[in-house]
Amino acid sequence: MTYEELQKTELFSFFNFTESGRKSAPDGYQVIHYKPGGFQEFIDVKMKIDRSQLVQEGVLYLDRDWIGGPMTVSPFGKNLAKSFIAAICPNVDKEKAERIVSTIWNLRGSNDQIISTQPEGSENGTEDIPIEELEQVYLGITKKFELVCEKSCITIENVMDVGRKRLKISIESI
Fold first, then answer.
1. Domain span at residue 15?
2. How far are the Cα atoms of 30, 44, 121 from residue 24, in angstroms, in the given order?
3. Dist CA 56 CA 45 (whole Å)
4. Of 30, 49, 131, 159, which has the maximum CB count within 10 A?
5. Is 28 left (phi over 0), alpha (psi -120 to 50) or beta?
């Protein structure tokens, strides 16, 4: 995906991301930092763009305290996470990524008032995706989930960043 195409996605139109900084990396890439229109103190995004203006990597950081955990899950955090994955993931990998997106979107905490059932079984050749592992990572219970696709690697993990516990979602071209 080109940088220009990325800027036309829901990630930019709905969440109103704007550039907050840019620097050149030693390998010839540009690293661009973004902040959303709201909740800026809890969210950081950076993109790595190559010389051809192709997105090589996207990273989203969400503060753990803000997105919730096993008891309560923030709907805004889920919406942002799913939109980020959908926007950054290469077209050839979208089918596998859609299972991750729908899993995140359907997550509920035990104290959330909306009751939802998780889809059972697997569809569209995604039976190799460990959905329960993904849920556990998003809820902050376990450390890391990784899915290697044809053209990208999707990693979701709990990390310490800028002195805070955060959920890091990264999609890197391979």
1. 3-173
2. 5, 18, 45
3. 14
4. 49
5. left
